[in-house]
Amino acid sequence: MKFNGFIITYNRPKELLETIQKVFAQSYPPQSLWIIDNSSDDLTEKEMNSFLTEKIKYHRIGYNAGPAGAAVKGLELCVADGADWVYWGDDDDPPPFTDTFEKLFSLIDEIDDVSKTAQVGLVGTLFNNMKGEFRRFTDSELKGKKILEVDSIAGNQSKIVNKMVIQSGAMPCENLFFGFEELDFDLKAKELGFKSYINGTLNFELRKKYKKDNFKAGIIRKRKIENLWRQYYSTRNLLFILQRNRFYSALNYQILKMIIRAIFSFKFGLNYGMKTTKFTFYGILDFIRGVKGQLLQK
């Protein structure tokens, strides 16, 4: 069995090198790692030149393709190298435990039908097709559950993908650029008959590590105002994904919910509310117009 991986990076050479070191410090590391560089300058490329080996390979996109476009390239390159399983990583979010990969492959060993397994990962959620909402597991649902089926495994959660699902045609849509590209991939894999799993016990250990046990759903959290531009992509892309999957009830529900949440965002201040409303409005508008790709940044 060949285990390869890729890490997506954008203008963060220092964080990238630290993450590479932590990935190869795993008790069960990948045999090789592609660096997929979205950077707008050549600093990362210059930094990587002295680190390239048979184990570390480099591919510069040449423009900012976003996490979605970079993920497509990473999946393609790893499968072309003969990988059976592919680690889908990010430059500032290494595996949180030194034995994360080892435990995830132990999980794979216990799955009855590996040929129909799309992926395994650390943290996963269920997805409500009628509302277009994610549901996280409670602590009690995670405890003692080594094998737990999920609908989606988010990015930066030690996502390890089976080559068979990639060869079957499941790929994230490159034109999403940023936001929910993992959900897009996961739903395509599910549509093809593949299943996704997490190690529930390991997920619960992660919550305790970051003091996030006693999880409670339904809390509206305030974003950092400098990150509100992301609302545009999460709004637009979720609506595109719901439409593609013909989840029309969820599509209508989400548009209404997005409008209501934009209105309630004013409780965090006028400037916060105005920015949230602007990005939400443009996200809905570009969905209606069928516009994809990179349109907004900070």
Automatic annotation (TrEMBL):
Documented EC number(s): 2.4.-.-
Entry's transmembrane regions: none
PANTHER family noted in UniProt: GLYCOSYLTRANSFERASE, GLYCOSYLTRANSFERASE 2-LIKE DOMAIN-CONTAINING PROTEIN
Gene3D superfamilies: Spore Coat Polysaccharide Biosynthesis Protein SpsA, Chain A (3.90.550.10)
Protein name, UniProt field: Glycosyltransferase
Coiled-coil blocks: none
SUPFAM superfamilies to which the protein is assigned, alphabetical: Nucleotide-diphospho-sugar transferases
Database matches in Pfam families: Glycos_transf_2
Domain Glycosyltransferase 2-like: start-end pairs: 7-114
Single GO term (MF): glycosyltransferase activity
Keywords: Glycosyltransferase, Transferase
Species for this entry: Belliella kenyensis
